[in-house]
């Protein structure tokens, strides 16, 4: 696992999303995750929805079931799942700014419920969820084994887990770690970036049976050239971007440096984007 030279806490992750909230909403929109270009002809909006649809395919959702969205961002994935599959979704986030948007989205819905909680100290009862999803949130957690242990504990037997995660390739070289992966972790508030074998091992050690792993790096990479273009355009046209970047009090402005680093890390294969699916065995299996 790649560990940043300065440890990153849950409080700092929350601060990252609170402070960057307006920028995330303007640059990324309501989905704070990669897009998935399957044909290559998708618009950016279609690509972000394609990523969720791909995850839903891996879960076999039934109307009325209860899904937990660990690290729900602005709640847009939860809303998509509720609208397209008729499932109840409980989403949790560390960020109060994200929670406000998500709660606004849930107004009048009997299917959506959002809370501010740290997954690593969650208050859910054992076996309450039918399915569990984590889209690009596990990398923000300092204890990945606990991330999987808690997913296992709160899933019912037979329940499924689907995780999208930023990964480091196996056997990274020291220059890749020094110039790309360690700074990406530090600048993006990731206490650790795991590898595919590590994710499999954490899941299995928690008790899960791993059903599949897909490397989607080539299909999501376009996200970063898109983001870099959007940010560059905003810097030129919007003075509050320039003010934020030039203000020494902006604790998370350093994340801007990660955009070209992440693009390069995908391009040369130092970083991978993984999709892991697993289930909690039922007592009879
Ligand atoms: C990259 S955003 C992804 C948001 C959302 N899944 C999406 O795809 O739009 C990461 C999310 O993980 C959440 N997160 C990170 N660590 C967490 C933790 N320990 N407990 C709960 N949420 C966490 C953040 O608050 C944020 O909502």
How would you concisely characterize the structure shown here?
With 285 residues, this protein is of the alpha/beta class.
Please, could you describe this protein's structure?
The protein has 285 residues and is an alpha/beta fold. It has a domain of 186 residues: Vaccinia Virus protein VP39 (Rossmann fold, 3-Layer(aba) Sandwich), CATH 3.40.50. 45% of the residues lie in helices and 19% in strands. It has 12 helices and 7 strands. The protein has a 7-stranded mixed beta sheet with strand order 3-2-1-4-5-7-6. α4 links the parallel β1 and β2. α6 crosses α8 and α7 packs antiparallel against α12. The protein is globular, with a radius of gyration of 18 Å. The two termini are 32 Å apart. Bound molecules: S-adenosylmethionine.
Helix percent band: 40-55%
CATH superfamily of the domain at 10-17 and 49-216 and 270-279: Vaccinia Virus protein VP39
* Uncertain stretches of 5 or more adjacent residues: none
Distance between the termini: 32 Å
Mean pLDDT: 92
**What ligand species are in this complex?**
S-adenosylmethionine
Quantity of strands, as a count: 7
Reported for the largest beta sheet, the result is: 7 strands, mixed
Could you say what the CATH topology of the domain at 10-17 and 49-216 and 270-279 is called?
Answer: Rossmann fold
Q: Secondary-structure element order, as H and E?
A: HHHEHEHEEHEHHEHHHHE
In DSSP terms, counting alpha (H) and pi (I) runs of 4 or more, how many helices? 12
CATH class of the domain at 10-17 and 49-216 and 270-279: Alpha Beta
**Rg value:** 18 Å
């Amino acid at each position: 696992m790649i560990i940043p030279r300065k440890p990153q806490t849950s409080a700092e992750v929350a601060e990252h999303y609170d402070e960057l909230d307006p920028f995330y909403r303007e640059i990324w929109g309501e989905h704070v995750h990669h897009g998935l270009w399957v044909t290559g002809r998708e618009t950016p909006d279609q690509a972000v929805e394609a990523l969720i649809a791909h995850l839903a395919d891996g879960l076999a959702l039934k109307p009325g079931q209860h899904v937990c969205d660990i690290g729900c961002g602005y709640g847009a994935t939860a809303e998509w799942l509720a609208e397209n599959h008729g499932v109840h979704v409980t989403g949790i986030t560390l960020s109060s700014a994200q929670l406000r948007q998500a709660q606004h989205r849930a107004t009048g819905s009997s299917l959506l419920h959002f809370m501010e909680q740290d997954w690593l100290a969650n208050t859910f009862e054992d076996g309450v969820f039918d399915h569990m999803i984590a889209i690009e949130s596990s990398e923000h957690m300092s204890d990945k084994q606990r991330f999987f242990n808690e997913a296992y504990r709160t899933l019912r037997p037979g329940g499924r887990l689907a995780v999208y995660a930023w990964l480091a390739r196996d056997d990274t070289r020291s220059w890749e770690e020094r110039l790309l992966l360690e700074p990406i972790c530090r600048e993006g508030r990731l206490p650790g970036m795991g590898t595919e074998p590590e994710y499999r091992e954490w899941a299995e050690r928690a008790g899960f049976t791993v059903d599949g792993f897909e490397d989607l790096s080539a299909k999501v990479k376009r996200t970063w050239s898109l983001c870099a273009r959007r940010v560059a355009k905003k810097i030129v046209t919007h003075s509050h971007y320039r003010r934020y970047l030039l203000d020494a009090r902006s604790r998370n402005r350093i994340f801007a440096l990660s955009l070209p680093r992440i693009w390069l890390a995908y391009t040369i294969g130092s970083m991978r984007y993984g999709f892991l699916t697993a289930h909690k065995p039922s007592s009879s299996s």
